[in-house]
Design brief:
about 110 residues; single chain; two-stranded parallel ribbon; elongated
Length: about 110
């Protein structure tokens, strides 16, 4: 909310408005391996996005990004079968990486 309040004068001054992105998670829309407090806060972020979109649109577009599993130390605690199942469910069929080197390696493969 504080960031949007600071951005509103700039977004409203722009003839085309602008876009404000909220980072949420698929854990906010479906039960998953995430902790309950994490899932609840991400569900709240999604609801906040909907409320802001209703009050700020159409000039300012409010959207949310909902990443799935991240292969961080926490994400790698899942077994191989669970990880493969999560990969298979992913709409974009791409993996998120925990370190920048692997991120660039995947990005370069995507460009080929």
């Amino acid at each position: 909310m504080h960031l949007l309040r600071k951005a509103l004068p700039t977004l409203n001054a722009n003839e085309d408005g602008g876009v404000f992105l909220v980072t949420a998670s698929i854990a906010g829309i479906a039960p998953s391996g995430s902790s309950m407090p994490y899932s609840v806060t991400k569900a709240a972020a999604i609801q906040l996005m909907k409320c802001l979109a209703a009050t700020q649109g159409p000039k300012i577009r409010i959207n949310a990004v909902l990443p799935g599993i991240l292969f961080t130390e926490w994400g790698l605690r899942f077994g191989p079968e669970k990880l493969q199942g999560l990969k298979d469910k992913a709409l974009l069929k791409k993996e998120a990486c925990s370190d920048i080197e692997n991120f660039f390696n995947l990005a370069n493969l995507a460009e080929d």
